[in-house]
Amino acid sequence: MIKPSHHANGSQQPFSLHAQLASDSHPVAEFELSSLRLMDDCNYPWLVLVPRVSAAVELIDLDAGEQALLMGEINSVSRVLKQLFRPHKLNVAALGNVVPQLHVHVIARFTDDPAWPAPVWGRTHARPYEPEALVKRVRDLRQALEN
Fold first, then answer.
1. Which parts of 7-115 are beta strand (E)?
2. Distance between CA 14 and CA 109 in Å, rounded?
3. Number of separate domains in the chain
4. CA distance 47 to 38
């Protein structure tokens, strides 16, 4: 079980994943700080890191140690996407305009992807993974993370 995480005022409260993130993504792995999830949109290799810190909305809501852990996790995920997909560009963003819970998008981008060169949001309709493709994508990501 995941331990309760601290609240800005020092109180303890259990972590829970925002319902929108839960419905739009699939679990991939658990890092020291964050849960790694795959967005259910096969238009792009698109991962999301969600720090398990209750009430965190902004990066500044994490303490210095948590910020360093998150940066290391972003680096690990970025390297896996680069290794597996050889993208032209990696997009890393923590927006939170729709889902306030702190989460960081790491997206492999290609000059021929449906939204290039614009951001992925609102450009095309999400294309959910077919079940077999989802299983393969998650398995490939997990294997790459172990290496």
1. 12-13, 25-30, 34-39, 46-51, 89-93, 104-109
2. 35
3. 1
4. 5
Mutual angle of helices 64-85 and 131-146, in 10-degree steps? 120
Q: Is residue 92 in a domain? A: yes
The β-bridge partners of 92 are 106
Q: pTM of the full predicted structure?
A: 0.90
pLDDT digits (tens, 9 = 90+) for 7-63: 444 446 788 999 999 999 999 999 999 999 999 999 999 999 999 999 999 999 999
Tell me the CATH number at 50.
3.30.428.10
- Answer positive or negative: Cα dihedral of 54, 81, 74, 72: positive
Residue 91 structural domain: 12-146
Instruction: Give the DSSP H or E segment for 5.
Output: strand 5-6
